[in-house]
C-alpha cells in the first residue's frame, strides 16, 4: 500500500545485507531479465533481488523464495507522473490507481485543486485519505490557487493557514502549481504568505510564456518547476533559470513531441513527464506516462535519457531520493517491459509486490464525497441572450491540442440588440453559470473552433472553479443541456436538436464518476461520438470545453463573471 516506506530497523538492514550477499534467499528474484541502466545507458544482465520493499541486488546471480522469469523482458524503474489532476480522469483516486499503475505509473504527484475548488478542505482531505490507501504512491501537493483568480466564483477558498495545517501530512510534499503569476509578481500578501509557508519544501510552477526578469522573480521565490512550456526556446529559457521542465502529454495540451529534441543525456536530469489533465479515454487508448515515453521515443529522443526523465529525474525533482533507479537500496518499483523501444508494459512491481487484482483488493476504500454539489435553479433559454451594442466583438479562438486561446474580434449576426451565434462562421455561444450557490452569475460570450451544429454540449467540469459551462448554436438546446446537468447533479451532456443524446453523470463534486474506469470510458466514447455527429471537429470536445473558463492561460477565456482578457488579467465587455 501507499503508506510511506518506514525507515528500516537494524534487523531489517541485517537481512538486507544477508540477502544481498546471497547468504539467505531473497524474498523475490527477477531472473533472466535485462535491465536498463539509466545512468550508463547499457542493457545490463543479471538477476534483480528484492528484500521486502527494496532492491538489494543487481548484476549478479541470486536465488529467491519466489522467482519471476523475466526472460525476454527489460526492467526499467517505475514511472513518475510529475504533475496530475486526478479529477480530470473523471474517476476516483482508487480507479485512477487501478488503471495507471498497471501502465507503469508507480508514483504520481497530484494536485487536488479541482475538488478543492468545489468542496474546499473536505475535498482536499478526501484526496489525502485516499492517497494513504492506494497501491501506487500518490503524493499530494497542496493547492496554492483556490480559487485560481478573483475573476471567477469558486465553491471554496483555501488560505495559507488552512494549507499549513496539512503541511506535515505524510502524503504531502509541498505547494502545488502557483498559477497566480501576476499575484507573485505584484507580491500580493496572500500569495507571499503561501510561498513563505512552504519555503524549503517543493513548490510547483505554472508560468506559460513567462520570460525575462519576471521569470527570474517567479523562480526566485522558490518555485522549482514548470509544465507550461510550449516551445523549445521557452523551455530552454526556463531550464537556464533553474526550473525543472515537465513535458506534458495531457489530453488538451501536448508538448512532448515539440520538446522532445531537448531530451539529451545532459538535459534529461532536469526534465520529467507529466499528464496534468488526461481524459480516461486517452489513458485507456494511448496510455499514461508510458504514452509520454512512447511519444518522446517516436519523436527521436534518446532512450536512456527518456527513461531517466520518466523516473530518476522526476524523483529527484521532488526530493524522492529512494526511487528512480533499479539499484540496491532503492524501493522496488520496477516495470518489466516486453519491448523497451515501444514501452510495452508486461508486469509492474510496486514495493516488491507484483501488481495484480489481489493487491488492489487489499486497498482501504475511502467513502465518496461531494454529492449534491450543483446548487443552481433550472434555467430558461432567454437567460443566455447576449446583449451588445453592435455586431462586432470579442470571440475566443480555440487552438487544437492547446490550452492557449486566441483573442479574436469578429462580426456576427446582430438582431434586436443581441449578438448571435453563427455556425457558418464556426462561432458558437458559450456561457458559464455559477453553480456553487453563492450567486447566480452567468458569463456570456462566443467561441470559434468547435465546428458544432444543431446542438449543445454542457459540462460541470470547467477549470478551475468548475462552474457549469455550455456551448451551442441555440439558446434552447443550451438550456436543455444545463437543466439535465442540474438534474444529474453534475456530469457531461450532449443535446442535439432538442433531445438529450448522450450523458455521463459525475455525481462526486460534479467532477468524478462513481462508476468504474471502463464504464466511464464507454459513456465518454458515446458522448464524443455524439459531438462528432454534430460535426464537432475537436478530438476531445468536452475537454476543450472544460478549459475555456481557466483565466490563467492566455489569451481570452470566459468565467461566470464574463469574458477575461488574460493578458491584461481583467474582465472585458462583450
Ligand atoms: Fe495543472
Model description:
- The protein is an alpha/beta fold and 574 residues long.
- Helices cover 27% and strands 26% of the residues.
- The chain contains 17 helices and 31 strands.
- The strands form seven sheets. It has an eight-stranded mixed sheet with strand order 20-19-24-23-26-25-27-28, with helices on both faces. A six-stranded mixed sheet has the order 3-2-7-16-17-18, covered by helices on one side. A five-stranded parallel sheet has the order 8-9-10-11-12.
- Strand 4 and strand 5 (54-60) form a beta hairpin.
- 57% of the residues are buried.
- The mean pLDDT is 96.
- Bound molecules: fe (ii) ion.
- Fe (ii) ion binds at residues 83, 85, 111, 177, 276.
Q: Kindly report the spatial arrangement of strands forming the biggest sheet.
A: 20-19-24-23-26-25-27-28
Spans with pLDDT under 50 lasting ≥5 residues? none
Count of helices? 17
Radius of gyration: 24 Å
Task: Give the structure's gist in a few sentences.
With 574 residues, the chain is α/β, with parallel strands linked by helices. The protein contains 17 helices and 31 strands. The strands form seven sheets. It has an eight-stranded mixed β-sheet with strand order 20-19-24-23-26-25-27-28, with helices on both faces. Strands 3-2-7-16-17-18 form a six-stranded mixed β-sheet, with helices on one face. A five-stranded parallel β-sheet has the order 8-9-10-11-12.
